[in-house]
Amino acid sequence: MSSKFVGPKVSDAQIVDALVIGAGAAGLMAAEELLRAGRKVVICEAKPSPARKFLMAGKSGLNVTKDETIDDFAAAYDCPDWLLPMLRDFGPREVIAWCRGLGQDVFTGTTGRVFPKTMKGSPLLRAWLARLGAAGAELRTGWRWTGFDGAHMTFATAKGPQTIAANVTVLALGGASWARLGSDGAWAEILAERGVPLTPFGPANMGFQVAWSTHMAKHFGAPIKGAVLRAGDQQARGEFVITAAGLEGGGIYTVSRALRMGAPLVLDLMPDVPTQELQAKLDAQRPGESTVNRLRKLGLGAATIALIMEFGRGQPLAKAVKSLEVPLLGPNPLDQAISVAGGIARVGLTDGLELKTLPGVFACGEMLDWEAPTGGYLLTAAWSTGRWAGRAAAQN
Question: Which residues contact 248 (CB under 8 A, 6 or more apart)?
Fold first, then answer.
Protein backbone atom coordinates (compact mmCIF):
# COMPACT_ATOMS: atom_id res chain seq x y z
CA MET A 1 0.00 0.00 0.00
CA SER A 2 1.33 3.43 -0.88
CA SER A 3 2.21 5.72 2.05
CA LYS A 4 1.84 8.85 -0.10
CA PHE A 5 -0.31 11.52 1.57
CA VAL A 6 -3.70 11.87 -0.08
CA GLY A 7 -5.74 15.00 0.65
CA PRO A 8 -9.50 15.35 0.34
CA LYS A 9 -11.01 15.13 -3.10
CA VAL A 10 -12.26 18.35 -4.66
CA SER A 11 -15.71 16.82 -4.67
CA ASP A 12 -15.48 16.62 -0.85
CA ALA A 13 -14.94 20.35 -0.54
CA GLN A 14 -17.19 22.32 1.78
CA ILE A 15 -18.97 25.08 -0.08
CA VAL A 16 -19.10 28.50 1.57
CA ASP A 17 -20.12 31.92 0.33
CA ALA A 18 -17.33 34.13 1.66
CA LEU A 19 -14.10 32.84 3.21
CA VAL A 20 -11.67 34.93 5.27
CA ILE A 21 -8.33 33.28 6.06
CA GLY A 22 -6.68 34.87 9.09
CA ALA A 23 -8.45 36.24 12.16
CA GLY A 24 -6.24 39.20 12.93
CA ALA A 25 -7.16 42.88 12.74
CA ALA A 26 -7.30 42.96 8.91
CA GLY A 27 -9.16 39.68 8.53
CA LEU A 28 -11.81 40.47 11.10
CA MET A 29 -12.40 43.86 9.48
CA ALA A 30 -12.78 42.21 6.07
CA ALA A 31 -15.26 39.78 7.61
CA GLU A 32 -17.23 42.65 9.10
CA GLU A 33 -17.60 44.32 5.71
CA LEU A 34 -18.66 41.07 4.04
CA LEU A 35 -21.28 40.52 6.74
CA ARG A 36 -22.49 44.09 6.36
CA ALA A 37 -23.09 43.38 2.67
CA GLY A 38 -25.20 40.34 3.53
CA ARG A 39 -22.64 37.66 2.73
CA LYS A 40 -22.37 34.46 4.80
CA VAL A 41 -18.85 34.41 6.22
CA VAL A 42 -16.53 31.66 7.48
CA ILE A 43 -13.29 32.80 9.12
CA CYS A 44 -10.42 30.28 9.34
CA GLU A 45 -7.59 30.91 11.80
CA ALA A 46 -4.47 28.74 12.17
CA LYS A 47 -3.99 29.43 15.88
CA PRO A 48 -6.23 28.17 18.71
CA SER A 49 -7.56 31.70 19.26
CA PRO A 50 -7.94 34.82 17.09
CA ALA A 51 -5.98 38.08 16.94
CA ARG A 52 -2.94 37.00 18.95
CA LYS A 53 -0.64 39.71 17.60
CA PHE A 54 -3.36 42.30 18.21
CA LEU A 55 -3.60 41.21 21.85
CA MET A 56 0.18 41.18 22.27
CA ALA A 57 0.34 44.75 20.96
CA GLY A 58 -2.26 45.73 23.55
CA LYS A 59 -0.29 44.41 26.53
CA SER A 60 1.69 47.65 26.81
CA GLY A 61 -1.23 49.86 25.74
CA LEU A 62 -3.17 49.36 22.52
CA ASN A 63 -2.27 52.29 20.25
CA VAL A 64 -5.13 52.19 17.73
CA THR A 65 -4.29 55.28 15.66
CA LYS A 66 -2.82 58.79 15.83
CA ASP A 67 -4.96 61.91 16.02
CA GLU A 68 -3.69 64.04 13.13
CA THR A 69 -4.85 65.20 9.72
CA ILE A 70 -5.17 62.46 7.12
CA ASP A 71 -2.46 64.06 4.95
CA ASP A 72 0.03 64.11 7.83
CA PHE A 73 -1.06 60.62 8.81
CA ALA A 74 -0.58 59.19 5.31
CA ALA A 75 2.83 60.86 4.96
CA ALA A 76 4.21 58.43 7.54
CA TYR A 77 3.77 55.48 5.15
CA ASP A 78 6.28 54.20 2.62
CA CYS A 79 3.73 53.88 -0.25
CA PRO A 80 1.30 56.73 0.50
CA ASP A 81 -0.06 57.11 -3.05
CA TRP A 82 -1.87 53.80 -3.39
CA LEU A 83 -2.71 53.43 0.30
CA LEU A 84 -4.11 56.96 0.64
CA PRO A 85 -7.66 56.19 -0.67
CA MET A 86 -7.98 53.40 1.91
CA LEU A 87 -6.75 55.63 4.73
CA ARG A 88 -9.12 58.40 3.68
CA ASP A 89 -11.94 55.86 3.82
CA PHE A 90 -10.95 54.58 7.25
CA GLY A 91 -8.39 56.82 8.91
CA PRO A 92 -7.87 58.21 12.42
CA ARG A 93 -11.35 59.78 12.81
CA GLU A 94 -13.10 56.65 11.55
CA VAL A 95 -11.01 54.39 13.81
CA ILE A 96 -11.98 56.48 16.84
CA ALA A 97 -15.67 56.34 15.91
CA TRP A 98 -15.46 52.60 15.23
CA CYS A 99 -13.91 51.90 18.65
CA ARG A 100 -16.62 53.94 20.35
CA GLY A 101 -19.24 52.05 18.33
CA LEU A 102 -18.00 48.91 20.05
CA GLY A 103 -18.48 50.54 23.46
CA GLN A 104 -14.75 51.22 23.87
CA ASP A 105 -14.09 54.89 24.53
CA VAL A 106 -10.67 56.26 23.63
CA PHE A 107 -8.40 59.13 24.64
CA THR A 108 -5.58 61.01 22.93
CA GLY A 109 -2.20 61.16 24.67
CA THR A 110 0.18 64.10 24.69
CA THR A 111 1.95 62.86 21.55
CA GLY A 112 -1.30 62.44 19.61
CA ARG A 113 -1.44 58.68 20.00
CA VAL A 114 -4.92 57.29 20.60
CA PHE A 115 -5.63 54.52 23.11
CA PRO A 116 -8.73 52.81 24.52
CA LYS A 117 -9.43 54.07 28.01
CA THR A 118 -8.91 50.52 29.25
CA MET A 119 -5.48 50.62 27.51
CA LYS A 120 -5.89 46.94 26.59
CA GLY A 121 -6.89 45.14 23.41
CA SER A 122 -8.90 42.34 25.01
CA PRO A 123 -12.10 44.32 25.82
CA LEU A 124 -12.19 45.71 22.28
CA LEU A 125 -11.62 42.28 20.76
CA ARG A 126 -14.30 40.64 22.92
CA ALA A 127 -16.87 43.25 21.90
CA TRP A 128 -15.86 42.92 18.25
CA LEU A 129 -16.04 39.12 18.17
CA ALA A 130 -19.43 39.24 19.87
CA ARG A 131 -20.72 41.63 17.19
CA LEU A 132 -19.32 39.48 14.38
CA GLY A 133 -20.85 36.36 15.90
CA ALA A 134 -24.22 38.03 16.28
CA ALA A 135 -24.05 38.99 12.60
CA GLY A 136 -23.57 35.34 11.65
CA ALA A 137 -19.81 34.91 11.25
CA GLU A 138 -18.46 31.41 11.83
CA LEU A 139 -14.96 31.31 13.32
CA ARG A 140 -12.94 28.11 12.90
CA THR A 141 -9.71 28.05 14.91
CA GLY A 142 -6.93 25.53 14.37
CA TRP A 143 -7.46 25.68 10.59
CA ARG A 144 -4.09 26.34 8.99
CA TRP A 145 -4.15 27.28 5.31
CA THR A 146 -1.89 25.00 3.26
CA GLY A 147 -2.59 26.21 -0.26
CA PHE A 148 -4.76 25.33 -3.23
CA ASP A 149 -6.47 22.31 -4.70
CA GLY A 150 -7.39 23.66 -8.08
CA ALA A 151 -9.36 26.81 -7.31
CA HIS A 152 -10.26 25.62 -3.80
CA MET A 153 -8.49 26.29 -0.49
CA THR A 154 -6.89 23.53 1.55
CA PHE A 155 -6.33 23.42 5.30
CA ALA A 156 -4.62 21.31 7.92
CA THR A 157 -6.89 20.78 10.93
CA ALA A 158 -7.07 18.61 14.02
CA LYS A 159 -9.55 16.41 12.13
CA GLY A 160 -7.26 16.03 9.15
CA PRO A 161 -6.99 17.89 5.82
CA GLN A 162 -10.01 19.90 4.74
CA THR A 163 -10.95 21.71 1.53
CA ILE A 164 -13.21 24.73 1.11
CA ALA A 165 -14.75 25.96 -2.11
CA ALA A 166 -15.62 29.62 -1.65
CA ASN A 167 -17.37 32.08 -3.93
CA VAL A 168 -14.93 34.73 -2.73
CA THR A 169 -11.86 34.63 -0.46
CA VAL A 170 -9.98 37.29 1.50
CA LEU A 171 -6.44 36.43 2.62
CA ALA A 172 -5.34 38.17 5.81
CA LEU A 173 -2.37 36.05 6.87
CA GLY A 174 -0.14 38.74 8.34
CA GLY A 175 3.50 39.46 7.58
CA ALA A 176 6.57 37.42 8.43
CA SER A 177 7.45 38.41 11.99
CA TRP A 178 6.31 37.03 15.33
CA ALA A 179 5.78 33.54 13.93
CA ARG A 180 4.68 32.22 17.32
CA LEU A 181 1.66 34.53 17.08
CA GLY A 182 0.75 33.32 13.61
CA SER A 183 2.57 35.65 11.19
CA ASP A 184 5.21 33.35 9.72
CA GLY A 185 5.11 34.41 6.06
CA ALA A 186 4.67 30.81 4.86
CA TRP A 187 1.98 32.04 2.47
CA ALA A 188 4.57 33.84 0.31
CA GLU A 189 5.88 30.65 -1.29
CA ILE A 190 2.34 29.41 -1.96
CA LEU A 191 1.34 32.63 -3.72
CA ALA A 192 4.60 32.89 -5.63
CA GLU A 193 3.87 29.49 -7.17
CA ARG A 194 0.59 30.96 -8.41
CA GLY A 195 2.35 33.86 -10.12
CA VAL A 196 1.68 36.54 -7.49
CA PRO A 197 4.52 39.13 -7.60
CA LEU A 198 6.20 39.63 -4.24
CA THR A 199 8.65 42.12 -2.79
CA PRO A 200 11.17 40.32 -0.51
CA PHE A 201 10.49 40.60 3.21
CA GLY A 202 12.64 42.80 5.40
CA PRO A 203 12.38 43.70 9.09
CA ALA A 204 10.63 46.96 9.99
CA ASN A 205 10.25 48.70 13.34
CA MET A 206 13.07 46.63 14.74
CA GLY A 207 16.06 47.00 16.98
CA PHE A 208 19.67 47.05 15.79
CA GLN A 209 22.68 45.15 17.01
CA VAL A 210 25.70 46.90 18.52
CA ALA A 211 29.09 45.44 19.53
CA TRP A 212 29.31 46.85 23.06
CA SER A 213 32.43 46.90 25.19
CA THR A 214 32.18 45.22 28.60
CA HIS A 215 31.86 48.67 30.20
CA MET A 216 28.32 49.02 28.86
CA ALA A 217 26.89 45.95 30.62
CA LYS A 218 25.81 47.93 33.69
CA HIS A 219 23.60 50.11 31.46
CA PHE A 220 21.65 47.33 29.72
CA GLY A 221 17.96 48.12 30.09
CA ALA A 222 18.57 51.85 30.59
CA PRO A 223 16.44 54.27 28.56
CA ILE A 224 17.82 57.27 26.70
CA LYS A 225 15.11 59.93 26.66
CA GLY A 226 14.60 63.05 24.59
CA ALA A 227 17.33 62.43 22.02
CA VAL A 228 17.04 63.28 18.35
CA LEU A 229 17.94 60.37 16.07
CA ARG A 230 19.01 60.94 12.47
CA ALA A 231 19.45 58.36 9.72
CA GLY A 232 19.63 59.50 6.12
CA ASP A 233 16.53 61.58 5.38
CA GLN A 234 14.70 60.31 8.46
CA GLN A 235 14.71 62.06 11.82
CA ALA A 236 12.88 61.40 15.06
CA ARG A 237 12.82 62.64 18.61
CA GLY A 238 12.07 59.91 21.06
CA GLU A 239 13.18 57.33 23.55
CA PHE A 240 15.25 54.23 22.98
CA VAL A 241 16.74 51.58 25.24
CA ILE A 242 20.25 50.16 25.53
CA THR A 243 20.01 46.37 25.49
CA ALA A 244 22.55 43.55 25.62
CA ALA A 245 22.05 43.06 21.88
CA GLY A 246 22.07 46.74 20.86
CA LEU A 247 19.38 49.42 20.69
CA GLU A 248 15.57 49.08 20.82
CA GLY A 249 12.59 51.38 21.21
CA GLY A 250 10.29 53.83 19.50
CA GLY A 251 12.97 56.33 18.52
CA ILE A 252 14.98 53.61 16.77
CA TYR A 253 11.91 52.15 15.10
CA THR A 254 10.98 55.50 13.56
CA VAL A 255 14.26 55.70 11.64
CA SER A 256 14.62 51.94 11.09
CA ARG A 257 13.87 52.05 7.36
CA ALA A 258 16.85 54.31 6.65
CA LEU A 259 19.05 52.32 9.04
CA ARG A 260 18.06 49.06 7.35
CA MET A 261 19.17 50.56 4.03
CA GLY A 262 22.60 51.41 5.44
CA ALA A 263 22.35 55.00 6.66
CA PRO A 264 24.48 55.72 9.76
CA LEU A 265 22.78 56.43 13.08
CA VAL A 266 23.64 59.86 14.48
CA LEU A 267 22.40 61.03 17.88
CA ASP A 268 21.89 64.53 19.26
CA LEU A 269 21.81 63.88 22.99
CA MET A 270 21.05 67.51 23.96
CA PRO A 271 18.71 68.64 21.17
CA ASP A 272 17.34 71.62 23.11
CA VAL A 273 20.78 73.19 23.53
CA PRO A 274 22.36 74.76 20.40
CA THR A 275 25.94 73.73 19.68
CA GLN A 276 27.31 77.22 20.32
CA GLU A 277 25.59 77.40 23.71
CA LEU A 278 26.82 73.92 24.61
CA GLN A 279 30.39 74.84 23.72
CA ALA A 280 30.13 77.94 25.91
CA LYS A 281 29.00 75.77 28.84
CA LEU A 282 31.96 73.46 28.30
CA ASP A 283 34.41 76.36 28.01
CA ALA A 284 33.15 77.77 31.31
CA GLN A 285 33.99 74.56 33.20
CA ARG A 286 37.03 74.29 35.42
CA PRO A 287 40.15 73.11 33.54
CA GLY A 288 41.47 69.65 34.32
CA GLU A 289 38.14 67.96 35.13
CA SER A 290 37.52 64.46 33.84
CA THR A 291 35.36 64.01 30.77
CA VAL A 292 32.76 62.10 32.80
CA ASN A 293 32.46 64.94 35.33
CA ARG A 294 32.19 67.53 32.57
CA LEU A 295 29.33 65.59 30.97
CA ARG A 296 27.64 65.06 34.32
CA LYS A 297 27.69 68.82 34.96
CA LEU A 298 25.79 69.27 31.68
CA GLY A 299 22.94 67.34 33.30
CA LEU A 300 23.41 64.14 31.34
CA GLY A 301 22.52 60.79 32.91
CA ALA A 302 24.85 57.86 33.48
CA ALA A 303 23.67 55.82 30.49
CA THR A 304 23.93 58.80 28.12
CA ILE A 305 27.44 59.55 29.39
CA ALA A 306 28.36 55.89 28.86
CA LEU A 307 27.20 56.10 25.25
CA ILE A 308 29.35 59.18 24.65
CA MET A 309 32.36 57.53 26.28
CA GLU A 310 31.78 54.39 24.21
CA PHE A 311 31.70 56.04 20.79
CA GLY A 312 32.80 59.66 21.19
CA ARG A 313 36.37 59.30 22.44
CA GLY A 314 38.85 61.41 20.50
CA GLN A 315 36.15 63.82 19.28
CA PRO A 316 35.58 67.39 20.47
CA LEU A 317 33.16 66.98 23.36
CA ALA A 318 30.45 69.23 21.93
CA LYS A 319 30.50 67.21 18.69
CA ALA A 320 30.24 63.92 20.62
CA VAL A 321 27.17 65.24 22.47
CA LYS A 322 25.43 66.81 19.47
CA SER A 323 26.44 64.42 16.69
CA LEU A 324 27.36 61.01 18.09
CA GLU A 325 27.59 58.30 15.45
CA VAL A 326 26.75 54.82 16.77
CA PRO A 327 28.14 51.98 14.63
CA LEU A 328 25.50 49.31 14.02
CA LEU A 329 26.11 45.68 13.07
CA GLY A 330 22.72 45.31 11.40
CA PRO A 331 19.05 44.81 12.22
CA ASN A 332 17.71 42.21 14.59
CA PRO A 333 16.31 39.06 12.92
CA LEU A 334 13.09 39.36 10.94
CA ASP A 335 11.04 37.34 13.41
CA GLN A 336 11.91 39.83 16.18
CA ALA A 337 10.67 42.82 14.19
CA ILE A 338 7.37 44.45 15.14
CA SER A 339 6.36 44.53 11.48
CA VAL A 340 7.77 43.79 8.04
CA ALA A 341 8.52 45.56 4.81
CA GLY A 342 7.76 43.72 1.60
CA GLY A 343 4.95 41.37 0.68
CA ILE A 344 2.50 41.30 -2.22
CA ALA A 345 3.64 43.93 -4.73
CA ARG A 346 1.20 46.64 -5.77
CA VAL A 347 1.54 45.61 -9.42
CA GLY A 348 -0.05 42.26 -8.58
CA LEU A 349 -3.24 43.82 -7.17
CA THR A 350 -6.28 45.50 -8.62
CA ASP A 351 -7.54 48.74 -7.08
CA GLY A 352 -9.85 46.58 -4.97
CA LEU A 353 -6.93 44.48 -3.64
CA GLU A 354 -7.91 41.45 -5.73
CA LEU A 355 -4.96 39.30 -6.82
CA LYS A 356 -4.67 39.65 -10.58
CA THR A 357 -3.51 36.06 -11.07
CA LEU A 358 -6.18 34.65 -8.72
CA PRO A 359 -9.61 36.08 -9.56
CA GLY A 360 -11.95 36.07 -6.59
CA VAL A 361 -9.07 36.11 -4.09
CA PHE A 362 -8.29 39.35 -2.24
CA ALA A 363 -5.49 40.25 0.20
CA CYS A 364 -5.07 42.82 2.97
CA GLY A 365 -3.11 43.85 6.04
CA GLU A 366 0.59 43.13 6.43
CA MET A 367 0.53 40.77 3.46
CA LEU A 368 0.72 43.87 1.26
CA ASP A 369 3.92 45.73 0.44
CA TRP A 370 3.72 48.82 2.62
CA GLU A 371 5.72 50.07 5.59
CA ALA A 372 4.93 52.43 8.45
CA PRO A 373 6.29 53.34 11.88
CA THR A 374 4.68 52.38 15.15
CA GLY A 375 2.33 54.87 16.75
CA GLY A 376 -1.05 53.69 15.49
CA TYR A 377 -0.09 53.60 11.82
CA LEU A 378 0.29 49.82 11.60
CA LEU A 379 -3.06 48.95 13.14
CA THR A 380 -4.97 51.63 11.24
CA ALA A 381 -3.56 50.38 7.92
CA ALA A 382 -4.45 46.79 8.80
CA TRP A 383 -8.03 47.85 9.48
CA SER A 384 -8.32 50.14 6.47
CA THR A 385 -6.96 47.60 3.98
CA GLY A 386 -9.13 44.87 5.52
CA ARG A 387 -12.18 47.10 5.17
CA TRP A 388 -11.27 47.95 1.56
CA ALA A 389 -10.69 44.32 0.56
CA GLY A 390 -13.84 43.17 2.34
CA ARG A 391 -15.97 45.75 0.56
CA ALA A 392 -14.52 44.87 -2.83
CA ALA A 393 -14.89 41.14 -2.19
CA ALA A 394 -18.52 41.61 -1.18
CA GLN A 395 -19.27 42.91 -4.68
CA ASN A 396 -17.66 39.90 -6.35
Answer: 207, 240, 241
Residues 6+ apart with CB under 8 A from 224: 239, 240, 241, 242, 251, 269, 303, 304, 307
Q: Dump pLDDT digits (tens) for 266-321.
A: 999 999 999 999 999 999 998 889 999 999 999 999 999 999 999 999 999 999 99
Please check whether residue 158 is in contact with residue 142, taking contact to mean a CB–CB distance below 8 angstroms: yes
Please state, in angstroms and as integers, the Cα–Cα distance from residue 378 to each residue in 4, 20, 239, 275, following that order.
43, 20, 19, 36
Tell me the torsion sign for CA atoms 230, 236, 239, 244.
Answer: negative
Cα–Cα separations (whole angstroms), residue 215 to 32, 211, 244, 309, 311: 54, 11, 12, 10, 12
Distance CA 245, CA 252 (A): 14
Please choose, from the candidates 330, 364, 36, 8, the residue with its C-alpha nearest in 3D space to the C-alpha of residue 162: 8
Cβ–Cβ < 8 Å for 23, 51: yes
Beta bridge partners of 140: 44
Which of 213, 230, 241, 244 lies closest to 310, judged by CA?
213
